[in-house]
Write a structure and sequence with these properties.
2 domains; 9 helices
């Protein structure tokens, strides 16, 4: 049974959200493994297992950045795979389109450049947690357990806050720029979700173009008030107008309008 355009749009948005969640879960696992490896790399920089001092800290920091950089390819693999999945849902070949999009600059940087920067920041966050644990004379296992509970938000109730309190010092919190989270973990995950979501936007636009859509309506798929999305609701958009996602958490859907005799007959899509 053929899907209506509204049904197609809702299903596509649902599959897009699922792809974003799945990719984020994979990347979260990569980040934890990366954090654990950075903690273990500190082993050879401590004279003994509960030493309060570290040797050759600059070298350790360099090693940590390299460990984080090693995660880039794995993350990029998941981003590309889940970005390409949108074409399979709509049964159109969009491999070249998506590959080209992933190399494009968005607000001055490609997603890969952002991924690299955020991973470098992630290494810095974990190193700071390790140094804090060392200053508290924690052994490796205790540091790993403490990092596990705080590496996603290291500047709030973490080893760093505990060490700063013990030393009676103010904790230094980095400012990573406007619109960027302090916690680098959140930046990596958001970059992954945004990239995949926007890649699916490109795929859906290609679907409309290929089937001769003459315009589209935008519908809210969330009850949460949003002035950004509300600006796009209730009128027929031209095909050249921006389409959702309009922001990081956007749940809006696109309903294409076709000439009566040109409407595509899309059956249940391939997952």
């Amino acid at each position: 049974m053929a899907l209506s355009e509204k049904q197609r749009s809702l299903l596509f948005a649902s599959k897009r959200a699922q792809a974003q969640r799945n990719a984020a879960n994979h990347v979260a696992n990569i980040l934890w493994k990366t954090a654990e490896n950075i903690v273990k790399a500190a082993r050879k920089h401590r004279p003994y297992y509960r030493s309060k001092a570290m040797s050759d800290v600059a070298r350790y920091e360099k090693e940590a950045r390299q460990i984080a950089a090693n995660a880039e390819k794995a993350i990029e693999k998941y981003v590309e795979a889940y970005s390409q999945a949108g074409g399979r849902v709509l049964r159109i070949d969009t491999k070249e389109l998506v590959n080209s999009y992933l190399k494009q600059e968005v607000f001055g940087k490609t997603y890969m450049q952002r991924n690299s920067e955020y991973l470098s920041d992630f290494a810095e966050d974990i190193v700071k947690l390790v140094k804090a644990g060392v200053s508290l004379r924690y052994d490796e296992r205790k540091i790993i357990n403490a990092v596990r509970s705080s590496y996603k938000d290291p500047y709030n109730r973490s080893l760093m806050t505990k060490a700063a309190k013990a030393d009676n010092k103010a904790m230094e919190v980095p400012h990573r720029g406007k619109g960027v989270f302090t916690a680098s973990y959140e930046n990596v995950i958001r970059n992954v979700r945004n990239t995949i979501g926007l890649a699916w936007t490109q795929v859906e636009k290609e679907y409309g173009d290929r089937h001769g859509a003459v315009g589209f309506y935008v519908h809210r798929a969330s009850s949460i008030p949003c002035s950004i999305c509300d600006e796009h609701i209730g009128w027929l958009h031209r095909m050249t107008d921006p389409a959702p996602m309009y922001h990081t958490s956007c749940k809006c859907i696109v309903e294409y309008v076709f000439h009566k005799n040109d409407k595509p007959q899309l059956k249940d899509p391939i997952v």
